[in-house]
Amino acid sequence: MRSNSSGSSQGITQVIAASSLGTLIEWYDFYIFGSLAVIIGQQLFPSDAGASALINTLAIFAAGFIVRPFGALVFGRLGDLIGRKYTFLLTLVLMGGSTFLIGLIPSYSSIGYAAPILVLLLRLVQGLALGGEYGGAATYVAEHAPAGRRGFFTSWIQTTATLGLFLSLGVILVTKELIGNEAFSEWGWRVPFLLSILLVGVSIYIRMKMHESPVFTKLKSEGKISANPLKESFQKKANFKMVLLALFGATMGQGVIWYTGQFYAQSFLENTCKLDFNESRYILLWAILFATPFFVVFGAWSDKVGRKWIMLTGMLLGVLCYRPIYQYFLDSTNVIELQNTEAHHTSKIETDRGYVSGTSDSLVTVRKFKTLEGGISFTEEMITVTPEDVLAPMPEVKTVISEVRLPQNMYIIFIALVFFQVLLVTMVYGPIAAFLVELFPTQIRYTSMSLPYHIGNGVFGGLVPFIATLIASFNGSTPLSGLWYPIGVAALSFLIGAVYISNKVDKTVMD
User: Which residues of 439-473 are buried (b: 16+ CB within 10 A; e: fewer)?
Assistant: First the structure.
């Protein structure tokens, strides 16, 4: 069947808009958590947890990615049995409800470890829902698109993941600006989660008006729907070979490029380089804003020259460029080195009497704002150990650097370097939906394409922030050690894809 090739441009535009809006909101819901990982960690774990709170929070974040392949199996099977429309309508409801409930969960100080456990359970539901969303949206759009233009039309779906991140960052920054830093850390971080229910309501209304895919409708009317999509996808040798090729030759490398260029970049700038909270997020916002149109550029280009080498070039450039880029980030914000002092020197804080005043469980913190030659600004926090009694002599303290601020010229360079990373994301991600749907027959397309996509993105890609941060915390590691994980995965995927993936330009109608 010629899927909408004779239909009006308005028809395909409506299909893309309805599919993209729901997918964008699901990504927004999914990524709020990652954007607020530091603050959420402070709410979910004891106040003295230190760095382990961030690592544990990133582990909860990663759990949502790990279960995405299971969501792909569950909802992919439903999509191939009952249809694309109702399946990703269900995933939208599950995602929106889970996000809203995360915003209502009390903190550790109120319910103890029940707080992170409840959040973990909701993250698992989010992961399952997202596992069923993307395959449905991509399949739905591809089955409406005319032959020879699937890369262009499905690339609009590809923008939604990045735009969802953009929206989550924007809502966070606006909320923080309106209520202030202190209120945001205490309760305002919940606002972006709670607002999502309004966005989900609008999207559900729009999706209810959508029609089923014409390709699936024809298949159903002819009685050719698969009786067992899972069995046909993974027990037939030829199809299972395509599943493995899609995973190891494409989505695995695409996943680590995606999450390094957007999530790990943000985490590295904030937690390793100590950039100011707002500044690190504005850098990412500007980079995303400038790079997002290239999803469509590379998607459309793949209709003309094929999907393979556009995606693989993005992987290769990541392998070659990540370490130099992150080394520049590190060198440019190393204020301790610029001061020519040791990283963890000790000193004494002078008070009126040379003593700590207050109760026995008090801490003393002094914040000093400095601007170095060259324009880099930062604050020093000098944090004491807890005094043993009210009138104990002032103990020695350790100086730590926080809230680095960049001069204008360096700020622009940072935006350009993050933009380049997001540009690589558009190269690997823009053509991949069309690449995946063209690999598999209609009867099992939803199931077959969803699984490799969500293993590649949810497991290999989604674990980038957690694994990279964990590796960098090991004894003997450097701040750049974590990059070896995405670099190694992208390099392996490049080699497999270069040898085994076909670069044909698919001009055929979709069966």
Answer: bbebbbbbbbbbbbbbbbbbbbbbbbbbbbbbbbe
pLDDT band at 353 (very low <50, low <70, confident <90, very high): very low
Strand order in the sheet with 397-405: 346-347, 397-405, 377-384, 365-371
Instruction: Tell me if 431 sits within 8 A of 312, measured CB to CB.
Output: no
pTM, 2 dp? 0.75
Out of 40-44, 112-116, 251-255, which region has the weakest mean confidence (pLDDT)? 40-44
Examine the fold and report which residue of 405, 431, 466 is the final residue of a domain before the chain moves on: 405
Residue 305 covered by a domain? yes
Encode 327-345: b = buried (16+ Cβ within 10 Å), e = exposed: eebbebbbbbeeeeeeeee
Angle at which helices 84-102 and 68-82 pack, to 10 degrees?
A: 150
User: Angle at the Cα of 285 (from 281 to 289), degrees rounded to 5?
Assistant: 175
Record the tokens describing residue 380, joined without a space. 């020093």
**Contact of 248 with 492, CB cutoff 8 Å:** yes
Domain end (from 352, 387, 405): 405
When divided into structural domains, the chain yields a total of 2
Same domain flag for 66 and 142: yes
Residue 99 shares a structural domain with residue 231 = yes
Q: Where are the alpha helices (DSSP H) in 292-398?
A: 293-305, 308-332, 335-339
Residues 286, 456, 468, 382, Cα dihedral to 10°: 50
Residue 384: pLDDT over 70: no
